[in-house]
């Protein structure tokens, strides 16, 4: 059973529908007991880092996620679910400059793009995966280097460890981590469920782990 975590972040219908193509047992839930019984976990959604972590903390899900990952359960983070895998973020509009603690499952920090001339933020639309590590990746099996994926985000990871990054993306000359894999923790900054057949292949790979 795959538990897609309900932590109050939007835009999850397409994610549920896409995962259901490869598993007949998908549950959208915040129930602690169901999460503990699940074979795999997915953190989806759009929104802000601080709100995502606040919701997880308020629902008592932060410690459960960390415990389940420590026990070896596969976890996939998508978009905001990808960003909260990291150590912290400075995305807190109520208290500018404050850092919000993430799940700390992947090395690195989430910071806003440094805007350049003619650069549009958020980074929105189709862009390529680069430097895909096909020797070690499980998530990107049969997804070629240079494949297009659909992105929408204003913040990106910095300070990531190279060995934890399976693919990068280049935006206005900056290369940032787009896919991470650390043990049983996986994440994509882009939306695989909105990235046509190759994006769906990523979800199929995760379900098939």
Brief rundown of the structure:
The protein has 209 residues and is an alpha/beta fold.
Task: Kindly report the spatial arrangement of strands forming the biggest sheet.
Answer: 2-1-3-4-13-12-11
Q: CA-to-CA gap between the ends? A: 13 Å
Approximately how much beta-strand content do the residues carry? 25-35%
Query: In the CATH scheme, what's the topology name?
Result: Rossmann fold
How many discrete domains?
1
Radius of gyration from CA coordinates: 16 Å
What is the CATH homology-level superfamily? Class I glutamine amidotransferase (GATase) domain
CATH class: Alpha Beta
Topology:
Layout (H helix, E strand, L loop, with lengths): L1 E4 L7 H7 L6 E4 L2 H6 L2 E4 L5 H10 L2 H10 L4 E4 L1 H4 L4 E2 L10 E2 L7 E4 L10 E6 L19 E6 L1 E4 L6 E7 L2 E9 L2 E4 L7 H12 L2
């Amino acid at each position: 059973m795959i538990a897609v975590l309900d932590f109050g972040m939007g835009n999850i219908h397409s994610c549920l529908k896409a995962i259901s193509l490869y598993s007949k047992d998908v549950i959208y839930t915040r129930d602690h007991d169901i999460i503990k019984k699940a074979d795999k976990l997915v953190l989806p959604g759009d929104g802000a880092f601080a709100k995502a972590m606040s919701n997880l903390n308020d629902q008592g899900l932060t410690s459960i996620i960390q415990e389940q990952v420590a026990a070896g359960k596969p976890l996939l983070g998508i978009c905001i679910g990808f960003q909260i895998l990291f150590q912290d973020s400075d995305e807190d509009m109520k208290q500018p400059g404050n850092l919000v603690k993430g799940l700390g499952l992947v090395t690195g920090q989430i910071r806003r793009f440094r805007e350049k001339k003619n650069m549009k933020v958020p980074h929105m639309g189709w862009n390529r995966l680069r430097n895909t590590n096909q020797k070690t990746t499980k998530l990107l099996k049969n997804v070629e280097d240079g494949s297009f994926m659909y992105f929408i985000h204003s913040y990106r990871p910095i300070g990531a460890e190279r060995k934890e990054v399976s693919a990068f993306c280049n935006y206005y000359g900056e290369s940032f981590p787009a896919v991470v894999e650390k043990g049983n923790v996986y994440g994509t900054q882009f939306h695989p469920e909105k990235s046509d057949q190759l994006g769906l292949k990523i979800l199929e790979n995760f379900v098939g782990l």
